[in-house]
Design the sequence.
């Protein structure tokens, strides 16, 4: 069946039916019900990423209610978000959803999810709020091109099935996520775009010391790659290394790792932040301790925080020696294995619970009070289309809610 043509004149068009686009459209229509607001979504359904997010549970935001602290979770965009978070932050997100009957809960690590543990709850809430506010939503409708109309606003080309419709809008919000074709449209309007590259991924590492240890985790390690230092839990997988410390390193090092084609040296301190000298000291005591001297190193670890299976593989280079038989040189090598264990990253893996792209519209070209372009009048941006990305934990949705909200305020004017 041929799709219904779209009405030609709009006050506000939002390109992209993701969380940023919905949040902006709802706010705008609620503030100014007289406006005709349209969301264009090129996929067959809206809010696709919300549905698959957080392993199907949607990690909506993070229980971090201090804007100054909140910005520290963004490898790119933190500074620009400082003011934006003082206007709409995680506590406001919680309130927004609760006012619409969606209660959120906080997990031990600070991540917040709907109490239903279902991302459909969030998607349904956004869809129902948009409908109630009178926002028109068209799916299967992709923005193909934008021309500035010198009289007032923009002339858009919209593809629906095999047809291309021209429509006119006074204001345009681009909230198309990391879609590359739309980034070309944005460039054609004169904006600079930072090249999009992946952030938040696991590391492929092939190394005898972690072979057959999939599932083993260490609560608190320090990772060092280039000048990036990150602390947290580490998980050994079939393909290499994962866990919060790895994901954070991948986010902060997203650009470098892309530049190195995902091959880089990584140093792991299995003892959190213990220094080489301190580790050596503990090992020397262990050796000198009478009770231990005649025991095998491999089955009598000196540090309880390292799981036994991992310890056995880290000390394999010593052979089956007793503590008393380790030479000074071997002791130093062991201390190094424990505090600066070198691995080679040989590629990136997928982190299925959350994935995000760094890169997008250059932030200096956007006014973060209104999310309006500093170059093109009546053009706005929100969400992942901007060069903003957070580490895992609900921070990526939070920047979409915040920038969507601010854009919605300004679009309603
Ligand atoms: C598997 C996965 C899980 C995730 N889990 C989480 C999580 O739990 N917590 C978290 O904080 N973040 C999570 N993220 C990241 C989060 O989904 C994104 O940061 C967020 O969706 C960005 O919102 P957005 O509205 O800017 O863009 P998007 O959600 O990407 O929405 C953009 C929309 O625009 C549409 N579009 C693109 N081009 C056009 C066009 N030319 N015309 C019309 N429509 C167009 C797209 O089809 C899309 O629907 C996850 C991401 C993935 C991939």
Sequence:
């Amino acid at each position: 069946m041929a799709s219904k043509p779209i009405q030609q004149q709009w006050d506000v068009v939002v390109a992209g039916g993701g969380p940023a686009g919905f949040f902006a459209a709802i706010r705008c229509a609620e503030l100014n019900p007289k406006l005709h607001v349209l969301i264009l979504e090129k996929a067959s359904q809206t809010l696709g990423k919300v549905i698959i997010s957080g392993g199907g549970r949607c990690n909506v935001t993070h229980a971090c209610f201090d804007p100054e602290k909140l910005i520290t979770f963004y490898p790119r965009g933190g500074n620009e978000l400082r003011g934006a978070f003082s206007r709409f932050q995680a506590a406001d997100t919680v309130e927004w959803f609760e006012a619409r009957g969606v209660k959120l809960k906080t997990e031990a690590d600070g991540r917040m999810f709907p109490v239903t543990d279902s991302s459909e709850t969030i998607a349904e809430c956004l869809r129902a709020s948009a409908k109630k506010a009178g926002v028109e939503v068209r799916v299967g409708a992709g923005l193909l091109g934008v021309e500035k109309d010198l009289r007032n606003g923009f002339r858009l080309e919209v593809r629906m099935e095999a047809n291309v419709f021209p429509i006119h809008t006074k204001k345009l919000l681009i909230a198309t996520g990391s879609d590359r074709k739309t980034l070309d449209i944005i460039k054609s309007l004169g904006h600079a775009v930072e090249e999009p590259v992946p952030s938040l991924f696991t590391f492929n590492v092939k190394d005898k010391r972690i072979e057959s240890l999939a599932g083993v985790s260490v609560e608190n390690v320090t990772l060092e790659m280039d000048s990036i230092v990150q602390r947290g839990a580490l998980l050994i997988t079939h393909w290499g290394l994962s866990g919060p410390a790895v994901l954070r390193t991948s986010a902060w090092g997203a650009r470098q790792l892309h530049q190195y084609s995902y091959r880089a040296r990584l140093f792991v301190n299995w003892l959190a932040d213990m220094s080489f000298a301190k580790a050596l000291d503990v090992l020397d005591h262990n050796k000198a301790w009478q009770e231990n001297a005649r025991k095998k190193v491999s089955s009598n670890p000196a540090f309880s925080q390292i799981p036994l299976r991992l310890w056995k593989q880290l000390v394999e280079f010593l052979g089956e020696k007793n503590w008393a038989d380790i030479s000074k040189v071997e002791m130093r090598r062991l201390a190094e294995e424990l505090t600066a264990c070198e691995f080679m990253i040989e590629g990136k893996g997928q982190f299925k619970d959350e994935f995000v792209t760094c890169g997008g519209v250059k932030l200096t070209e956007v006014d973060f009070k209104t999310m309006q372009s500093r170059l093109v009048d009546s053009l706005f941006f929100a969400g992942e289309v901007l060069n903003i990305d957070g580490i895992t934990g609900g921070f990526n949705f939070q920047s979409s809610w915040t920038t969507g909200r601010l854009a919605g305020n300004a679009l309603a004017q």
Notes: The pocket of flavin-adenine dinucleotide is lined by residues 15-21, 40-43, 48-49, 52-54, 58-59, 142-143, 175-177, 179, 182, 353-356, 383-385, 394-397, 400 (CB under 6 Å).
